[in-house]
Queue: 4 jobs
Job 1
Amino acid sequence: MHGIRTRLFAAILLAALVPAVPAALLVNNLLQRSRDASLERHLVDGLEAGMEESRLALATSREALAFAAAELAADGASGVVVLDVDGAPAPQLAPPAAVLDAARRADPRPQPVGDWLVMRRANADGDDLTLVQPLPAGLADRAARLADALATAAALRLDRGAILRGYVAPFLLIYAALLLAALGLAALLARGVVGPLHATARAADRLAAGDLEARVGADGPGEVGALVRAFDGMAARLGAQRRELARLEKLAAWRGMSRILAHEIKNPLTPILLAVQEARGSYRGADAAHAAVLADCETIVREEVEGLRRLVALFADFARLPAPEPRDDDLRPLLDDLARLYGERLLVEAAAGPQPGRFDAEALRRALVNLIDNGLGACARAGRPERVRLRAAHADDALVMSVADEGDGIPPENLERVFDPDFSTRGGMGLGLAIVRGVIEGHDGSVSRESMPGRGTTVTVLLPIPPQEAR
Amino acid sequence: MRARGILTASMCTLLLALAGGGPALAQAPRILAVEPARTDSLLVCRLRTAGLPGAEILSTLRSGLSSAVDLQLEVLDGRGRAIDGRVLRLRLDYDLWDEVFSLTHGDRGVTRLPDDAALQSWFDRTPWLPVAPLAALANAGPVRLRAALRLHAIAPSERERLGEVVSGPDGQEVSLGLGKLIRYFYRGGAREGGGATAVSPPFAPGELAHARD
């Protein structure tokens, strides 16, 4: 079973990993190509050209400022002199303080500070001459933007490894997280598949060891669920068949034994009774006490012989129990007959008029009598009035009869066995209900019972009424 | 014969590797000396170095990117424990327009350096760098000064800026997370330009000579 789980896991892992490897290689290759594309070189060339132009413009401005500075120095100018773009003094211009500060620390080579060009040199008298001149509009800004773009392009070239890592590592991280999630899902799926298979294997082992109650119990969708349901169904059928087989075997054994007992006991009963009667009749003496003993003996033997005859009749009934021959009939005469037979002890509840059904009246009578007798006996054991209720009704193409008493009831642990031929809690042979079951099952019917100890028992008999065309 | 051929080839390979590694070793940044001195209130030091800023950093600078040098200056007591110190970050730039180097040092502002030689000269013999207040070392006894430098071919601040470029603008919530991830891993892959460490001989802070250029 571990093999299936491992294979499932491995299959999902492979399904997740196999496309990932070429995908990662492809991503890496595409990134490399995007870097290697000549487009980048063209862009950098363009930027370099732009920067060169800016440098030339700066150089021109520098030369102009240096020339103006030389003239002003020769004229003896000193202090801070602000020039306009054309090199003429422009005291109306107000450079920012930071520019002026940088200008005072500048050297003779003009240097750009923001949008200004500054320089400092000595005039003809050796005094400081500080010059500040605005650069052509936008020149410094364009140069700054070009420098920024060139630096970025350089980073893309020089820092390629780190940039690739910046792209590939998140991909791998996200992929690993997705892979972990997929594997977790795979583990859940594998458990969903393998779990019922494990349970089925265990149940099969128990079944093989003779535990007919072994069931998987778990249910689920799909093929595995179908397998589990099929197994449970098979186990249930196997158990039912095994129990039925055991019951039939026991029934056959009891019938065989009943036949032998009926024969072996019945035959000597009449000679025994006759012998005792002869012994009593042949006594001609005057001993009244002896005559009384003989009379008592005859009575006792006759009663016991009668008891044995009834038992033999029961055995004979059970042994000979003929297969019922159901036919279309009316239950009403049988109900009336039973009502007459039992008088007030039987309360018959049925709709007025004919009660059509399909049954063997003689066999059904035997079964109902046994049930009623059992019910009356239960009432007597419970110390209640002997009274049994017999209901008959039609339901779903079946004739349903129930015999209910308010007797001592049947303990739950015995409820399943009361129809077995060897089971009795009253010291009898337990054949009465076995005969009932034989009769009813001979009608393709069913018999069920409900009981509450101390409250009473209801036995329900269901005889099917097949459709007319099926008869 | 075949074994001899393999041996010869291996030796040649080794020699070539050593020959290739020679310049690299020569260019590795080194601190030749850590020279302590004092001002009225501060313990200062000057470093004599070699191999700085190095070809890689120069190349990076000339491409327009910023580099950085981290300097960790520590005062060690007699048992070698750091009792005071300071970390300085020097940012190096090259102005592609003006074609001059600049060295930004938090305390000293910006120093403009016109060419490679000026930049190298700055590192060969640095200015006096503040280390610790002398008052804090009054009872320290003999101490030593340890200087450690670490080069960042691309300055961390530059990498921050590039991280924004590489990860693209953050928009929706999903791309926000992805952008952060890209920046995180990009910054994590910083190119380092090596480092060096040196320790001065023991000295008594109170007996140091005044710093002079």
Job 2
Amino acid sequence: MTEKYLEGLNKIISDQVNQMDDTFVYGGNVNRGSFISGLSKNLVESRRRVIQNVGNCEYTHCGIGFGLMMSGVNAVLFVKQLDFVMLGIDHFVSTYGSIRATDYPYKLGSFSIVTAMYDQGYQGPQSSFRGIGEICSMSTISAFMLNGYSDAALVVKDEMKKSGVRFFILSQRKANEKMNTLDVKRTAPDNSVIQYSEGSNATIVCFGFSLSSGEVLRRHLLDRDIVASLFSVNVLEHPQWEIAISATVRSKRLFVLDDTFSPTSSSFRFIVDALEQDPNIRFAIERRREKVSTAVSNEDLEVGFERLIQKLF
Amino acid sequence: MRLRLIQLELNEKLKDRKYKVPIHLGLGTEAAVVAIASIISNGDNLLLTHRNSAFNLELAEDPASVFLEYEGSEFGLANGRLGSMNLINLRKGIVYSSSILANNISVACGFSYGQKIKKLENLTVVLTGDGAIEEGAFYEGLIFAKSHNLRLLIVVDNNDYSMASRISERRCSIDLSAICESVDVEYLFLAGNDVDSYAKQLASVKTRQQASADPCVVEVSTSLLNQHAGPTPGWPGDSMRVDIKNGLIIKGDSSDPLFVIAERLGQDNFHHFEKQLILKR
């Protein structure tokens, strides 16, 4: 597997969409030009699948997805970047709230929003919204952070066809990187937490798009004969992280890597949940401590691997 | 007449502070409500606003189920889970009610597109108002509906008010017919509160939409005869007076659909039917 991140994700997403009937696939330039930087390439129209280039009205695009879902049709909305999704917040919070209070006697369609988070910091002050955690928190809608081939293949295949709404979030920083191909060992029932490695000496739990850094940390530890479990929490709202909590309670040593930009990141809740289970757990966390700049800047999370390891071993 | 009576009964309950949920009556909208309900056939769908009470009362098999819903009862129309502003009735085609201004336009576009993808020729009707057309979402929805040939009927209830503000107090005038013309959408204006005339004109629009699969905007001029929400009168000294003891007619001119009915039937006939209806209730 030598694919780049964006190419690999396009293959996974288009393969899934191309299997869905009674489906409306739409977005600005979804079937034109660069195909949203390659994200929406290879989509195939059929008698029961419409692929529609639509105008510039993102609020309406989001409402349309809910209407399609209520009519029993699946909707897949491609949005070039997360900033544009903000216009739909009324629908995520209010429209979906109303739908969820209703007992429908028929199966609702699915509504998936596929978008890239411009988290590399070079877009400028107006195009660098990264607060997907805040959107999820306000709306209680899940966002799946697509880190690599295995998790993306799993969650896109399982989740895109389900009734209800979710986001699939890509990292712009990783667009041209080689695709992460770590194998999945276990998953939480709702695909919110994925385990990649098993080990009893330490537990590494990654948030956001930090799985690759987590794997580097795991290898650093292995060089010292420390065998660690590696997890990625790839959903930001109410993840079922019991498998990661159990591993943490067993190992008593927890590394948390969190490259999200949210001041209310679920990594803090994870640490609290783990400490509630066992106050003797020791933990080390790498996260964004500086105030996030709105100006052009590099936004890679620099992980101090040695510092983290020395803190716990 | 039946809908007016039920709404008056509801207003009396509101005066008694029987409900905790905010209820937006539609006294004065009955001609439009009854006419719209008359063109909704099996498979057609309605997407309403916070002022959905009159529609739900008109279409419910038993209006008592709506009253129970407002009480939060598990025996209510939606088992007490939706309350007032979001109340729907899937069995009668009310698939969505939104309390957010203009929020339901795009949802209706999606719903209508869903029907199209499923190769159904049902009509989707979305209610909105003179306040909501100030939102950009209205214009966006109009463009989307036209661009994709949606069988969508957008009904604009123009009652002049956005809560306590009249149009002239909050914005410049909007020529809705010109907006519709600019995007090549059929436009129809209804005024006068003649329910039979409204029903015939709407049925004719529906027939055209079934043939052409195009959206249409119908602007209906109404006078809301109750306060924005809650009971009328809403406070001591409120100049707006509504009392069931005064009979079904609230206002003695054509702004009241019941006055229009009385004019048509003749006063004696009207009062005869009025008495019968009240006795039956």
Job 3
Amino acid sequence: MPLEPADFTRLYRSYAAQLLRFFARRTLQSEVAVDLVAETFARAFADRASFRGGSDSEAIAWIFGVARHQLSEYYRRGSVERRALARLGVEVGQMSELDYERVEELASLRSQRASIAVALAALSADQRRALELRVVQERPYDEVAIVLGVSEQTARARVSRALRALAQGADQEEGSELA
Amino acid sequence: MPEITQLPPVLLAFGDDFAAAMDAAVARGSEATRPRRPRRAGSRPALFSDRRRPLWAAGVLTAIAALAIVLVVGVPGGGPTTAFAGWRAIPTTPTADQLQEASTTCAGRDPDVASLGPVVADTRGPFALLVYADSSSGATATTVCWSGLASAEAVIGPGKAVVAVATVSGVPSPAAGSVIVDGQFGLEVTPSAAADFTVLTGVEGAGVSSVSLVLVDGSTVEATSSNGHFAAWWPNSEAAKSAEITTTSGATTQVPISLPQIQYGPAPLAATGASGASTP
């Protein structure tokens, strides 16, 4: 059953919050999580011809597959791809303080701090420093590379590996919620 | 299941825009075989209208005959002293104000650009590069425009902009999964070459999802793709030696770029004031 715009609208209303939590817990960056939600739905709409299911549960499972691919691409590239959004002709607005608070609340990031601290402690010193520079200080990768004394590619790799390690922790914590 | 009201307002608003954009996309699909002309002067490009409305409403241009690029360098007041500080190898998301400024600053500087609609908006930090295309002409015109660039001001005076135009012709349609580079050129505006930069533009065949460029020095620059075009620029004189093409199926291929040696200045400069008045 091909998915129509009305189907995507219904799925967005029902599952965008869950998807936002999925991304927020794995990227630890509210803006990135919001952008990934938007790009995921735009990408799913663009690729809707490839959906072969017939129910909402199958559709959302498929969309989460798209989401995991987007997340993987984000780890690899170090930035959110917005190609599907651009082709569809929409963009995400600027985030307000309320937006940031809502994302933190929805993703329970505050209550996750203890588990995040544990996961961070398990990272290598190099990865932890790279993550701090990129995520906490929000510095661009070229600056991260300079501070670390490595190539930009190496800096990206360290941040990517660190985020993947934290994401594995989030996966274990959420169990089968998103399976 | 979380309620929709739990979403942050920015995603609630996006949900509305997403729904409208899907409807518009479906509507466009029903008339996809009808060739479209780019926007003409007097009709405000949707790209620069309300940022919550669809941006690329003009659709895909079916024949590539003329191409123009406007590069706007907007250095915030009191900003970096390095000419291209803030440039990024990966495109950044443009703000509505940034695009609006790019349009008002440069689109009116060249009569061939003023009547067209943009097909690519490539933004890297504070810099915006706009690509315009026209199917009505047999030539490809490339226009580069700076404004607010400190090093350029050292040459042409404060508050001025630089416009350069180059023309090529006969850009064929690329095969599916491939790209054609239709222009790669560099400019310098200062004797010290502090503001050298290189621009590369091209067209994409069906099924191409992204293009990354590998420069002679081994660094990579990710291009911005939209409406069958792609573009990128970088703040040095290194040429692009190859392109990594990724298709919608996920396949990636590396292809060499063979173009004549990049020609650097003295650029064919035509300087205009910020308000459009003629200058030095």
Job 4
Amino acid sequence: MKAVLALEDGTIFPCKSFTGSGESGGELVFNTSMTGYQEVLTDPSYNGQMVVMTYPLIGNYGVNEEDVESDKIQVSSFIVREYQDYPSNYRSKKSLADYLQSQNIMGIHDLDTRGLTLHLRENGSMRAFISTSEIESPEKAVEKAKNLPSMAGSDLVKNVTTKKPYFWENNKKKFIDSLDEGEKLWKSKDKYRICAFDFGVKFNILRLLEAQGFEVLAVPAFTGFDEIKKLNPDGIFLSNGPGDPEPVTYAVETIKNLIGFKPIFGICLGNQLLGLAMGGKTYKLKFGHRGANQAVKREDGRVEVTSQNHGFAVDLESLDKDKLEITHINVNDNTLEGFRHKEIPLFCVQHHPEASPGPHDASGLFSDFKKMIDDFKKKEQ
Amino acid sequence: MPKRTDIKKILIIGAGPIVIGQACEFDYSGTQACKALREEGYEVILVNSNPATIMTDPEMADKTYIEPVNADILEKIIAKERPDAVLPTIGGQTGLNTAIEAAKKGVFEKYNVELIGASVEAIEKAEDRENFREAMNKIGLRVPESGFAHSMEEARQIAQKIGFPVIIRPSYTLGGTGGGVAYNPEELEVVAKSGLDASMIRQIMIEESVLGWKEYELEVVRDKNDNVVIICSIENIDPMGVHTGDSITVAPAQTLSDKEYQILRDAAIAIIREIGVDTGGSNVQFAINPLNGDMIVVEMNPRVSRSSALASKATGYPIAKIAAKLAVGYTMDELKNDITGETMAAFEPSIDYVVLKIPRWTFEKFPETKDVLTTTMKSVGETMAIGRTFKESFQKALRSLETGRAGLGSDGKDIEIPETEELMAKLVTPNSQRLFYIRYAFKKGMTIDEIYKATSIDPWFLNQIKQIVDFEEILQKAGSDFDKDLVYEAKKMGFSDIQLSNLLGKKLEEIENFRKTHNIFPVYKLVDTCAGEFRASTPYFYSTYEQIDESRINNCKKVMILGGGPNRIGQGIEFDYCCVHASFALKEEGVESIMVNSNPETVSTDYDTSDKLYFEPLTKEDVLHIVNTEKPDGVIVQFGGQTPLNLALALEKAGVKIIGTSPSSINKAEDREEFQAMLNKLSLRQPESGIAFSEIEAIKVAEELGYPVLVRPSYVLGGRAMRIVYDREELKEFSKYGFAVSEGHPVLIDKFLQGAVEIDVDALSDGNKTIIAGIMQHIEEAGVHSGDSACVLPPYSLSDKIIEEIKVATRAMAKELDVIGLMNVQYAVKNNELYVIEVNPRASRTVPFVSKATGVPLAKMATKIMLGKTIDGLCLEDCHELSHFAVKEVVLPFNKFPEVDLILGPEMKSTGEVMGIDKDLGNAMAKSIYAAGQKLPESGTVFISVRDEDKDKAAVIAKDFIELGFEIIATRGTSAFFEEQGIKNKMVRKVSVGRPHVIDEIKNNSISLIFNTPSGNSRTEKDGYLIRRAALGFGIPYTTTIEGAAAYCLAVKALKKSEIKVKPLQEYY
Ligand SMILES: Nc1ncnc2c1ncn2[C@@H]1O[C@H](COP(=O)(O)OP(=O)(O)O)[C@@H](O)[C@H]1O
Ligand SMILES: Nc1ncnc2c1ncn2[C@@H]1O[C@H](COP(=O)(O)OP(=O)(O)O)[C@@H](O)[C@H]1O
Ligand SMILES: [Mg+2]
Ligand SMILES: [Mg+2]
């Protein structure tokens, strides 16, 4: 079915919908991972965004039950060069089109996605609108794109954070009604207890935390310091999440209190919120880092290929170098990829050590987290 | 950390001659390595026996040894040069093997040389099966179960333990003779027995079969800080059982989810670490069970490879260059990604297109061999295509293959859809034409599932093919009712104009005009390593049908070079060499160079060889699109072999300016009648000839000329099918198929000049003045294709008078043909008379050899002449007196084709060449023979068995060998003849006579040199055939011509007088 993709700057791409008729809008970003579309679709950090995959053939291996990063598709629409309607893979359960349609998400294809990507690279991420009805009058679609709310300055975390706390157990969520019972909520004796702030956490982070032998309790983004204090966890995890960190002031406030209370590990948005809490500044990147091939240099000189998905970053210059140590740097553009406090037990990274999709090079950070807790415990004793 | 300063001088081992499985991709990697190391200020010493390579150009290294590549010679070079380090991972398997052998001999220790890139331990861990298995088990990975058997009893036990089916590979046989698959105990009895019999040491390996599993390759790069990245994943469309070199492959992998891909990635990284390749690239092959994802490691190559060349071209990431820099101590984060110019080499390329590779086979050259693909590689070249969809790339790749197909089908070349039985056979047993049979299967109504069951080709790929076939039908239905959208849609699926004209029932021009009217043209996109994330600085393009064009048109003087496409027998690296030189010359002259080629193995398709690179099929349509986009001031067609020549007239007709010799002159030399007229005018002689349209006519012509005659169909696809015919019987035999394949074209009949000396001449002309760049005297007589015979520069036994005649004739023809650029002539001399056999007004196969032998870069000079310079202006003159001899020897692929006889004839069969250079002719010959892989003995027994015509000459040779201290054994006729001549010898039985026979002697290791010439009669003489195959199979030096034997004799003499001395090319001129 014919469709049109209209960008807020007036650029038009005629295309086709492979999920039937509809309209959809959002901020348009591109992702350069060649595999892992199902993980991308369900990553809460993409909430509300329209994602263009630069790899042209998408849908090849279908959709399965395991490769999800949240309970639902998060992107507002999905843009590919050529949708593949004949998946082939022993794990495939259904086609990508069926999957998108079942959740009312639009998928379009048959457009020059490379041209589109270069446009975004040169002009920055922007809002866009897809429509199957405005094909004759694309200027209307452009208007609709312009009327969408802009990403910078809006708090998208509130859309994706969990409403209720839950334990992550056996790779599943087990919801609880409230945190009122405090420390009594924990079930295990010998496991480290981790409070994971869910700003839109990816399942694979929870899976890897559990795999470290942690008891994992995911809490809503709004959870305050007092509640955490009552829980008395062994470690705090700050998750990834969508959008601009600046408006998520409530979390920044909580984190300020948490610093020094217990060891903290942050990923992606978690890294940015920690940066803000440490007095740093964040800014919007022109078109962000989204893919599975970015090299990050560690302080020991080793390079890791990482999975990335962020449109905002912590300004390296803004960090207080007396207190903080830069641990990770992006090899290509020298942006901040991670830092650590010199005295207080906390570290964080901008990239995604949980991969999914992407390489596992940085997965050691999860055991580093465990080690940090070990050390903290020893000191406490 | 920056580069190492404790090493200054590095020796690079090249890959030697082009053979099946090791082709010009190693010139590409070697050239990159040389450039990369010199750029860093290291002194580079190179050894490579292959003169047709860019890497052996004297400017590429500080010292270039065109010497045999083996441990002996390596030691001599090391002793002389005393390098600090040796880089063994750039020259293919030859590089590794040579390094390992030298290490075992203690060479590196003795001279205190460090192996960089990969250590001996790492190489052995990867190469030795048991070591490899252990290493894999240690990191929790699995390799196929296997065991060695020396008897049927052992074979049964091992097979029982592994479980059926099993793969049986005899140890120490060439070309997979005697191996096979056994699906059950009964078959094991047969296959294991034939395997044991075929093996020289009666040993077979029995291996768990994973036939039909999916095959993947990952290209891995590691630096000294243990940083590891994956450059590219490649999925084989043909599943396990077809060698990756013979598989149609696609990059990146198409049917793996991220979870599955990451498992492979983790495994590949674990493997390179466990094997311990310190720095550089490796290739890891995996098999995956499509039903449950089980994984097996097939093998790992701890070096750059054919696949790494493909991966480099597919992604833009120069693996060999980076590997060379990592070997001297850089880490990836310190090296720039040339393509973007702003990012670093530490990353994993992301691509936003689909790359297809299709191998090119030459079964038509070896009619005794079945067109069947197995675990042994048989292809001689490959082509790569880039498109934005699989379908587009696939059809582009099919036309890039230059086998006459314009796409998957509907190009006027389809055969009638075969009967189900034949169709199934072609689907089940992999073969070079299987893709087309898949199309026929869909046409016949077979389903994806049915075809999957027959082929084990992943349904995803089958569906892609089906979509193309379905669209053919849509086009056909539309008929003349087609519109712009439909044509555009077809273009996006890679359909060529030729296919469209067939499907829509329009003339080709009508389709072309329709496209013009509706503005349907491709756009060009960049290969940028990063899927558009960063701006690319290198202009490396491919075409596609989309919205946005990225071509970068400069308004300067520019010239386009058309390359040679995929390698094939007769058109290989030599032509790429010329194209690359054209590009260098353009750079020197300040003219923008635009390269068009479709061969991923070459230096010409390296992104920094030319100012611009278009990776595109070399068809009229695809080339015209580029011409229309770039509007070059001229196009060079005389360097890429037959490929661009075939386009020359059509391009000229379309208004393209061809620079250099005009297409009509080229045509004049190819057109029989025009050519004859020209020779008459110049009073030059040609072997008498005639043409025939029927057997009766053929007999009449042949008998007027007198036997023997040389016959050839004037039009045959993919092979010349030339034959020497000695009598009427043979002529009749030839006529049976000769007229059939000629398809209405006449058969050409030439008087065969028996016992004539053949001469190759390369000349250079500016239209006024012609210089003779090199005269090469063939060692074998006329009748052995010039591409298959050894030759010597300068001539070693031609009279001054003949040489003068050759020069005069060459100049006269160059003038008459208005040659601007290169020209090659083949002459024959018989009874002191000069005959012209053939003139090619273009670069020839011998251009790089002549350039290396004389020090004059011919192709570069030719390019400058095409740009308007003159012979005088460039200070060029006839090849001067040389104080050395250069001998070219060829390398033949018989080891890969077990059924084929080893004899040479007028049809070219060789895949590669080597050069031996020395001030002494005998030593130069010895070097060339050694470089081609035969180590001449200095004592022992010579076996001689020759046809009657050769007996006199054989006697002289036998006497010489006796004088040199050898013993002679001979078969009955030869023995008796020697006896008469008083030459002491022992008689040995032919196989047909009874045991013990000559092959028993060969097996007993009691023969050290074999001279066997086939009886002139081409009816198979079984005995000779068996002897020749045995010589090859057991690695005993042999030759099949009497002139070859004489050369061997000269070489052995020289060797006995003085051992081989090495000397760099730079010191010869
Ligand atoms: N156990 C096996 N079962 C089925 N096919 C195999 C097996 N091992 C190898 N092959 C096939 O044979 C080919 C060549 O084997 P490989 O070990 O890679 O040798 P080479 O060194 O010649 O590349 C592979 O590409 C694969 O297709
Ligand atoms: N009349 C002839 N007498 C003897 N040998 C010939 C004759 N014509 C051709 N040949 C042999 O056949 C080979 C191939 O013939 P040629 O015409 O050069 O074909 P190609 O175009 O394949 O090079 C020559 O190199 C030469 O050895
Ligand atoms: Mg292999
Ligand atoms: Mg010839």
